[in-house]
Each structure stands twice: as C-alpha cells, then as structure tokens.
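Appendix B, Record 12. Input sequence as logged:
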Amino acid sequence: MSRRKKIYEGKAKILYEGPEPGTLVQYFKDDATAYNAEKKATIDGKGVLNNRLSEFFMKGLGQIGVPTHFIKRLNMREQLIRAAEIIPLEVIVRNFAAGSMARRLGMEEGTPLPRPIVEYSYKDDALGDPLVPEEYIVAFGWASQQDLDDIVALALRVNDYLSGVMYGVGIRLVDFKIEVGRIWEGDFMRLIVADEISPDSCRLWDIETGRKLDKDVFRRDLGDLADAYTEVARRLGVMPSNVTHPPTRPTPIN
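Logged structural output:
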C-alpha cells in the first residue's frame, strides 16, 4: 500500500489518508512519552506490539457488539480505520485507585473502588489534559447530555470486556482510557470507540505479584517496557509463547 497524505501526528501514532473515502491508515510509532511528553524515548518494537494488541481488543469488542473504528490490520505497524469526528475528551474508567486519583485523594495505590468510576479529561496537551466535569462538557458543546449517557454506557461495556479478558490471563485491569468518535450513517449518528486500546492506555498489574505491565514501567523506570508489553501479548495469545523479545535500551528523543 503506497504511503498517503499525512493527516495528523500525535505522540504515539500517525494518521494518513485512507484508500477509500471515510477511511484512514493509523500507524503505530515506537515513541514512548510520559508526564505530558516531558519524558520521551524510542522503544524498539513498541509500535508493533501496540498495533497487534489494539487489533486484538478492537476485534473482541466488535464481536460483542461494541462499535469501534477498526476495520483491519494492514501490516505490522498499520491499521485501516474508519474516519470519525473525535470528541475532545479522554474517557477514563477506574476500577482501583492509582496514578493521579491516588495522589489527588491520598489513597493507597491498588485500593479497590466501590464501583467503576468514569472521569473525563479535556484533550489539550498545552493544558495537561485537565479533568473536567460533565457540566463543562455540556456547557461548552463538546458533547450533549445524551452523548455523555451513551459514552458512559459504552465505557462500562468496554470495562466489562477488558476486565474479564485480563482476569482470564492473570492481569488486573486497574484503569484505562479511551477516545470516542462520532460517525454518520445517513442521517443517523452513532458513537464508536476510537484511537487505540493497548498497554499505553491501560494500567495492567499482574494479579499475583503486582508487577506493572503498562506504561508505568516507562514512567517510573521499573524495567524494560517492551518486555512488559510482550508479556501481555504472550498471555493473550497475540504472540507465540516461544517468542522472546531482546532487552532494549530506551533511546532518548531530543
């Protein structure tokens, strides 16, 4: 497939014009960032792993009737996806206290929450993606109240699916974030899961040992990030169990 016009480049992915109207090609980079891109490095193979893992999760969601932007994987680093109008929010679902929630509320990391909690952050790197209440979202026209009701239902279905899949391979789904897009089918608008689902966007802890298998490995200098992502892929059967990933040294991005 020939390379097409670049539409957008983010911290971890690039979007290119797709081969048909209404489609895009999503390319997964090896770049890793943390703390609003204050910490950056290149992790060999990360993009390949995230491409395969996101394919696995998006296909699984589709099989249970959760609409996503995923059409098919094109190669080791690219997916064909549906173009969507992205709502400018990160939708965060938390099952256990961790990260910013634990810091804000003075909670011990790993504390089970009484129920899954859905939060929203406004997607703006310059502002640090601040948390926003539903009142702001509706008042500023980012989404309607009906949209938010539908987003919560969508996010909780994703949570049920991911929690079950991860529990089955000995991994605790601590929290995750998704993006939601709008697509139109004639005059009918529907909301779909967009962007990606991967260890970049989830907190994943080994149930028995508490070992972190997500981007916190990079954020907190806890070891080899590619090795952690490879472990998730192995357990899910995305990669053969006999494949080993050589130790990698993060390459700083200047």
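The chain has six helices and 14 strands.
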